[in-house]
Amino acid sequence: MRHRHRSLPRYSAFDLVRHGVSGSRWPSVWQARDLQPSYDVVVVGGGVHGLATAYYLAHHHGITNVAVLEKSYLGSGASGRNTAIIRSNYLTPEGVRFYDRSLKLYQALAADLNFNVMFSRRGHLTLAHNDSSLRTMRWRAEVNKLEGIESEVIAPNEIKELVGHLDTSGRARYPILGALYHPPGGTIRHDAVVWGYARAANALGVHLHQYTEVIGIDVGGDRVVGVQTNRGPIATSVVVNCTAGWSSLISKMAGVEMPIKTFPLQAAVTEPVRPFLHAVVVSGTLHVYVSQTDRGELVFGASVDPFPSYSMRGSLEFTEGVAGHLLELMPSLANMRVLRQWAGLCDVTPDFSPIMGVTPITGFYVDVGWGTYGFKAAPVAGEAIAQMIATKKTPTLIASFDLARFSEGRLMAEKGAAAVGH
Amino acid sequence: MILLPCPYCGPRNASEFRYIGEQGERPDPNQAAPSAWRSYLYVQSNEAGWVIETWWHASGCRRYLIVERETVTNEVRAVRPPAAPPRHRLLDQAEETQGQSS
Question: Where in the sequence is the domain holding A171, given as residue range(s)?
Answer without folding.
Answer: 124-183
